[in-house]
Amino acid sequence: MATGVYLMVFLGTRVGLLGFPLILVSYFICFILGRRKKKAISRRKFFASFCIFVLCLSSAIFLGMHSSTLKRQKNLEKEQNQVVDKNTKEVSHITGDALSYVKQIEKGEIPSSFMDQAQQKSLVEMKNTADRLFLDNSKRRIQQFLYHTYLIKNQKSISRILFGNGYLSNYSEMTLEMELASLLYNFGLIGFVLYLGFFIVILVKAVTTLFQHFDKRNIIYLYYLFGVGLVYLLSLMAGYTFFHVSSMVVIILLHILLNEECEKIE
């Protein structure tokens, strides 16, 4: 619980803010599904567990309301009104740095040695899409995802699709922070399969086994499965999930334990 308080209140990231409540919800779902087939569970025990779950979740929500993450988000919302497009005289829908690059591109001031034509075109298309969607300029990850998606399209290169763009296509605020997407865009299809193929096979196998042998499920198996699923969900929100040594050790262990539980059920 103390770790949860730190993650939600003091860490200042969305992963900490949302991750801990997700763990609580996952724990309760696993408890219900894992014990559903056991008639020995009493209503009193279920009610007690439910009350504890509600208390913990309520505490997590209360802590989240006083989180550094929300304070930071409010500051970002104030700052976004200061980024103004001089042409339209309205608040920009992309970050200040990205807007500055777009203006330089329109004036032809950016050399191809710094940003090639595909990158320049992708940045402009990203801005146009953000304008159509009335995107908040503080939503950097959406802007990053749009830019890198357009970049793959505009490069029109099979080798880039297979082997990725590397990290040279990342610059300033357009560095892709959604790690699952960055693995695909930066390392290509081949790199993505080589790095995550082993883990994805285990996840697919575990989900398939759950549906095929639903009556044999147990709490431990569901814990591992939800834990692995949470890894992929959080990797869409943050970087250094699969590339950080400390988290990668836990990820590998989770997949190995999940695979062992699959074999027991089968």
Commentary on this structure:
This protein has helices at 2-10, 14-35, 43-65, 68-80, 96-107, 117-133, 140-155, 158-163, 179-212, 219-235, 245-265, and strands at residues 84-85, 90-91. It is an all-alpha fold and 266 residues long. Strands 1-2 form a two-stranded antiparallel ribbon. Strand 1 and strand 2 (90-91) form a beta hairpin. Helix 5 (96-107) crosses helix 6. The longest helix is centred in the C-terminal third of the chain and has 34 residues, at 179-212. The mean pLDDT is 79.
Give structural attributes.
266 residues; single chain; flat; mainly alpha
Average of pLDDT: 79
In which range does the helix fraction lie?
over 70%
Helix/strand order: HHHHEEHHHHHHH
Oligomer: single chain
Give the number of helices: 11
Structural class: mainly alpha
How much of the sequence lies in strands comes to under 5%
Report the principal-axis shape: flat
Unreliable segments (pLDDT under 50, ≥5 consecutive)? none
Our measurement of the CA-to-CA distance between the termini, rounded to an integer number of angstroms, reads: 35 Å
How many beta-strand segments?
2
What is the topology, as strand order, of the major beta sheet? Answer: 1-2
Spatial extent as radius of gyration: 23 Å
